[in-house]
Amino acid sequence: MNNVTRLLQRHRSIRKFKPDEVSEQVLEAIVRSAQMASTSSNVQAYSVIAVTNPETKRALSAVAGNQQHVESCPVLLVWCADLSRDKLACEREGVEMVSGTMENFIVATVDVALAAQNAAIAAESLGLGIVYIGGIRNNLREATRLLNLPKLVYPVFGMCLGYPDHESGVRPRLPLRAVLHRETYDETAQAESIDEYDRRTRDYYIERTGGKRDTTWSKEMADKFKRPARAYMRAYLEEQGFRFD
Amino acid sequence: MNNVTRLLQRHRSIRKFKPDEVSEQVLEAIVRSAQMASTSSNVQAYSVIAVTNPETKRALSAVAGNQQHVESCPVLLVWCADLSRDKLACEREGVEMVSGTMENFIVATVDVALAAQNAAIAAESLGLGIVYIGGIRNNLREATRLLNLPKLVYPVFGMCLGYPDHESGVRPRLPLRAVLHRETYDETAQAESIDEYDRRTRDYYIERTGGKRDTTWSKEMADKFKRPARAYMRAYLEEQGFRFD
């Protein structure tokens, strides 16, 4: 372990922030760090919108199911997969961009995630805290309108940014052997790993809530996956010009 | 700037590795760091296969268009989006998993990217070097066979891991104002940013290759996007059980 792996392994989401502003210098250090993440063939297929306007944050908080921290954080970063800039580059070379494949969609979605995770690490190293806001995907049509996004751009997640005003525990993860396989995929490791993790998450919730929350990872997953998630997504993405041929 | 933002901003891909092994302890520190990345509603929808077997690496190198470093790196990590474990969790609760939406696909693809980027940072902080291998997506059917992947799992990218045996320059990125927008998306900043970046990338390539490579970012993008990319992807993903409703 060194300072960096300790920082990475100490990550916890922060949902309450001090009123302190995030300075321009700090924001730029974070986004410049994001930019240096790997990118597929240098396409850099992402953009990030820094939102500080209270009305926009309030509206995006409503999109995300009224998550109070989306409104109260000093800066909300909205991370977008973005093929529109690559399209502009093609146009100036007189080339019609062919971006209508699942592959292009994957590339843009991965590119923005790599950049955002670098931003998260940079922010935490500078004493800030973050929480990813997947809830922005509740209504991407509204987010697209609020942020004035052009075609070939879609918000993948938000990220609240600011100085932490609370501490929270580090949530235990699946046993290492569940996610790390050797040479080939090991299905036999899964059942035992889930048993072990169900026990650990149950203990964690009981301890953390004084016994009020008594559940397991399996129960949480069953509850999450028992109905279709955000079923409008495909249609929205097609409206934004993405194709999945 | 601090040690971490310096590390993040110093990233360069490494394609030549010393023969030194990556110890079990180092590999575990890297994957444990990966596990602490944020994950959507704790689904942890990813797996990573650590490949050291020379034959498998050779075969995956062939998949990736004969990238020599895929064969010669001490460890190849294959990062997979993985909804199969969540399906197992649902099954033990007697729930039939409903995972047939674009949303679920995005969640799994983002989850693995966040974890992998933490792994990249951890590795670099420990003195190792990495390069992402998108080329593994040239033939995911073959990669799936070689790694014995179950349904609801797909390799998103590989990552060569080892101790660097060369130095390489840090490739310039787009101007900050191209990717960082304020309050709403700023289309007007794009044309000028691309002009500036085309000049910078041209200078960079000319200097780096002694004048042999004379191109711009726009030309590279036009060349990349003029034909459909990996058009079999959607069909492959459906074979693996993913749906995009």
UniProtKB/TrEMBL annotation, chains A, B:
Keywords: Flavoprotein, FMN, NADP, Oxidoreductase. GO terms for molecular function: FMN reductase (NADPH) activity. Gene3D superfamilies: NADH Oxidase. It comes from the Bacteria. CDD domains: NfsA-like. Its EC number is 1.5.1.38. The keyword Oxidoreductase applies. Residues 9-163 form the Nitroreductase domain. Belongs to the flavin oxidoreductase frp family. This is Oxygen-insensitive NADPH nitroreductase. It comes from Paenibacillus hemerocallicola. The gene is nfsA.
